[in-house]
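User: Predict structure, ligand FE2/S2 (inorganic) cluster.
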Amino acid sequence: MRITGTGHASMRIDTAAGSILCDPWVNPAYFASWFPFPDNSLLDWKALGDVDYLYVSHLHRDHFDAKNLKENISKKATVLLPEYPTSQLEDELRELGFTKFLRTKSNQVHELDGGLKVMIQALISPTDGPIGDSSLWIEHDGIRVLNQNDARPTDLSIFAELGHVHAHMLQFSGAIWYPMVYELPESAKTAFGKQKRDRQFDRTWRYIDDLKADHVFPIAGPPCFLDDELWQFNDIFGDEGNIFPDQGVFLEEYAKVGGTNGIVLLPGSVTELSEKAATTEHPTPIDEFFANKQAYLEEMRERKAPIIEAEKASWRHPEIDVLGELKKRIEPLLEESIYMAQGVGGPVRFDLTDSFGTTGEIVESIVVDFPGKQVRPYADEKVRYRFKTGRALIEHLIFIDEGDWVNSLFLSCRFSAARIGQYNEFVYAFFKCLSEERLQYAEGWYDEHEKEVEAEDTQLGDWTVQRRCPHLKADLSRFGIVDGNTLTCQLHGWKFDLPSGRCLTSVGHKIRAEKNE
Ligand code: FES
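Assistant: Predicted complex:
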């Protein structure tokens, strides 16, 4: 089996029974904030795209690159489609010209021509990717590969049960706006960032240890940020609170916990994988490449500047009545939302500036009032959640009829946020569900989930605790760690105060716990 690195979460896997291209992302995503690092735009995408199968793990724009899919990927390819609750991924791929789909069943092995076997696990909670994220397992000729991508299954046992895995690809770096965009003192941001960076690595070690594959490939990040306003997010300033460590740092950290089987793929690196060994050739020596990262990014910044400028020029639509349009689109959804609206529980304020981000004058303030079920001008009231961003960005979201503001505005990091009290995942869940189909799905999921999550118990230290984490149902008998009166679920690091059951990380999400006599 041959694995060719094609950047970020993308790779091409060649077997004697056919080739699979995964997540071919090249063009900048999220308001031109994220670029693939290292740059993969000079690869021969027409040749790479001439494949038998295409796997797009989910709709996040650093995995689903409409332009590259349209221009370079063969429409003869059969799409290996994850089993998602909505048809959006298939619809968008059809619109780009793909016509052949294998609709897989989640967690079921599908046998393709020539003895190639694939299994896709689809994760479908409202907080998994843009309502859906997935991992791809492949077997051919006795060699097994798990491309876990950036999915966060509660455990990997379903893959391990299919036989020893030879190559395990997984995310290890950050892919979120926290804590950088929060309006906090720098010292607090650094402390939160460091916690997050440590947690990312801990989670990665746990997954690696779960599967015990022969070889581990760090993939799916970090991106690089080339716009001047976002440049500080690149991990080149020795900031221990930076959540975007690169593959070179991964190798160093992995070595500290005894990991010796890591393989970094640069765009164009090729690994020949057999049951016994993996040999990799790189276009540039790896150590040298990461040692020169700063100069590499500076050169890339200059080269890509015209692309960013051209994108920026397309965002302003001053003729749009932002308040009126948001009223028209969001108020019917507020009316229908029960769980998420209750979960948000208060007004959310958007301060809109005359720039493309957080600088400049605030020219309009709008409140999405969840209890009042309306969108209205800000009325000088106290709000629990506040965002500040460029009016032009919201204009553009309205212009393109964007139904998922996480997969556009929030991942762009072109905003700042402030809140009173805890993180509230319902705020982000709602703004990724700005369509009837998604809203209904998410509401239904929360409805079912609330009933289901409480049933079983487990013993943790001196406590009897509900077995499933109130966040996303991780098995706390495996992921739960009790320290005094605090339980931490290691899957996403959420903390719970056991005597009161209160979630210390996010609003709501109470846990049932009782101290043993
Ligand atoms: S499942 Fe996310 S913190 Fe437990």
